[in-house]
Amino acid sequence: MNRALSRLAEGYAQMFGKAPKKPERADFTERAWDLLAYKKTPAQRAYRKAAIKAEREEEVVNHTWRNRRWVSILVVNLLFVASYWLDLQLIEGALTASRVFGFHFADLNSALQVMLAFKTVLINLVIGTGTVVVIYMLFGGRSFCAWVCPYHLLSELGEMLHLRLAAKRLVKDHPLHRATRAVLFAVFAALAFVTGYTVFETISPVGILSRAMTYGVVGGLVWVALLLLIEVFYSRRFWCRYVCPIGLLYGVTGAASPVRIKYDGNFCLHEGKCREVCLVPHVLDITKFGYSKDVEAPIGPDCTRCAMCLDACPTGALSFDIKGLSRPQTDRRKADGAATCADATQGERRT
Fold this sequence. Notes:
mainly alpha; three-stranded antiparallel beta sheet; 6 strands; globular
């Protein structure tokens, strides 16, 4: 329990800007330390080097989870559009605040901005945020970013273009400090309270795109285009990584969600492909050689559950997991007859 709480506290700290650091010897569990020692043996070093070389030479592009997310984003947002234009009145409103089959939904940050601006607690927003909190406590807070947010899809396309230009050395990424997002969260909250106006909602591409698709309000699309230009030519994933406070609140809410992505060091080659594709790569520092304190561990609360790391991982070291229900990855591999590093480590200790 203490280790789980420590992991959660560290995850929160990283979400608010703390840089991950390599653990000390005392931080490792005995199993994790044994596994690390085993991977340092000459035979295992040679094996991992050969496996990484072979994997890169015969690279297979896998977009299974990415395609599922894109379908999810399109379906969720088109449901709002269809319900409005067909006058079905089943899904009303936009992503910032809506009513779905009679149930109120309200984005946490939007609700906070409105209540700070009006300096009053609005019962519909309380009910709406309560519904959202329950959902994301079950399915993972930042899953909204990857599976629902319309700007995430556009930003992902912009990132693809950025990476192509970067490969040709036409552009260069300019990362900002990750704590910028937390600072701006406080700034936008203060502005709402002082001015009585929801400043963030005016510039949020999430609300702009949702209202544009549903109601045809296109005034803010110039701002969305400007954000995409910044992300393509200057700073990769600028809005999602360094500005948007929406994911910050969802991350805090869904940190203890039973649905998470889990890491199993037994199968990790530590080649870093997962970190290359991750929206928030600091959450995958655990995959670096010598960084995981446990053999198996869930990815931190800033994880969006986008599963791009699952598509990228060549060995299945990362997988979706439901706490208390999923069978451990190691057990599944054993059932398939695959040996693990842990097996070899235990064998060495017995001899």
